[in-house]
Design a protein that fits this description.
About 60% of the residues lie in helices and about 0% in strands. The protein contains 3 helices and no strands. α2 crosses α3.
Length: about 110
């Protein structure tokens, strides 16, 4: 896996952990708050995760291609209506990455 895909995965895991901690803190605050309190505990929303960039997606797909899955990468691009990555709409990058994760992971 490339450094960019490792970094993207680490960021996603950190955001997920932050959301879990926030949920746990909110639940604990609700459980131990007095019934007479009128001040609700403010919900802390995690920052939205940054959008994937063309370079991040390209790095992952290039790794898959180098690993011998070029045909699968081409099929994946065609699924998103493109002959090459630069033609894929950026709003599809996250879904494309999720689909790319399973390439080469035979079970």
């Amino acid at each position: 896996m490339s450094k960019m895909s490792d970094m993207a995965q680490t960021i996603e895991e950190l955001l997920s952990a932050a959301a879990a901690i926030t949920d746990a803190a909110n639940w604990l605050a609700q459980q131990f708050s007095g019934e007479g309190t009128t001040d609700p505990v403010p919900e802390v929303k995690p920052e939205p995760k940054p959008a994937l960039t063309l370079e991040q997606v390209r790095a992952v797909l290039a790794d898959k291609s180098r690993a011998g899955h070029t045909a699968a990468v081409r099929e994946l691009l065609q699924k998103y209506g493109a002959a090459k990555l630069s033609q894929v709409d950026p709003k599809h990058y996250e879904a494309l990455m999720k689909d790319a994760e399973v390439i080469g992971n035979a079970t």
